[in-house]
Amino acid sequence: MRIGIIGAGAIGGTIAALMERAGHTVEATARGARLAAIQNGGLRLSGAWGSHFAQIPVGNRLTAPPDLALLCVKAQDEEESLRVHESLLEGVPLVVVQNGLDGAQRAAQLHTGGPTMGAIAFFSADCPAPGAVRVLVPGPLYLGTGSSAPTQDAVDAARLLGEGLPTEAVGNFVGHEWSKLVVNQINAMPAITGLSVQATLADPRLRRIVLKSIHEAVAVGKAQGIEFGELNGMPPWLLGLLGSAPRPVGSLVLRMLGRRLGHQPVLGSTLQSIERGQPTEIDYLNGAVVARAKAVGLSAPVNEAIVQLVHEVEHSHSYYTPEQVVRRLG
Questions:
Q1: pLDDT in tens, 187-241
Q2: In sequence order, what are the beta bridge partners of 143?
Q3: Do 65 and 190 sit in the same domain of this protein?
Q4: In what order do the strands lie in the sheet with 68-71?
Q5: Which of helix, strand or coil describes residue 46?
Q6: Residue 241 sits in a domain of what CATH number?
């Protein structure tokens, strides 16, 4: 099958390498140093899912209609990427692999000539070099649409992608999106401090702030009537525990989560963007919690302050110490 990957970053590049290893014809898009590196030296995969060298065509845009397309760009780049490929993707099933909420719904408004479905990457990967991707923490890819059972298009796409990496078509995809949004609350603190996810969750002062932001996210989701979905053995009741349990209990759960990530530093997608000098997707993560809180008559002051701090780091290119963070948010 011909598979098109729009955005061969950490997640898109990992999927591209794995699907090429599975024997499919893969074409991808990239920009800047990453584009040049893959064009000149191919794409190298390493980490939890083994090593592989993928020699795939890559450019600023796809050149041929694929049988299945995956949109793996940040939320803020979604519209531009789809408009560039509008005619090429006519009638092509599109999988939107993205953090935050409503990515597939936004894409469906532009991709009107074919089925559109969302995807949640519950694995952690980074780009140790422009032409390389590394899987730090393995996990499945979840596909679906809306709050009902998975469509046949999602089932078919999951079956195909399952040839390269663990993939599951799920019902109640909206609930799974919200669960990932809650989990992604651990992404912002590394972007503010420059520390790994493990280091921020090991610091009791920073862990307390992360727990507050999770409390807000869970409260907003419940106020919207969201039924949280299960992610890789993380049951909905655990998210409920993080959202409402006494601080010592929630703090212990977060500390255990940090330890489960292993010894290889996990930076999170938001810090990775800052290190590359690119805009982050913080407005679609913690910012989404703030927006949804206002929509249901609630407030999310910790998430709002976190969004502001991440934007300050984006503009100043200078991280805050844990002590400074505590003074602002503690």
A1: 999 999 999 999 999 999 999 999 999 999 999 999 999 999 999 888 888 777 7
A2: 119, 169
A3: no
A4: 58-59, 25-29, 2-6, 68-71, 94-97, 116-121, 141-144, 167-169
A5: strand
A6: 1.10.1040.10
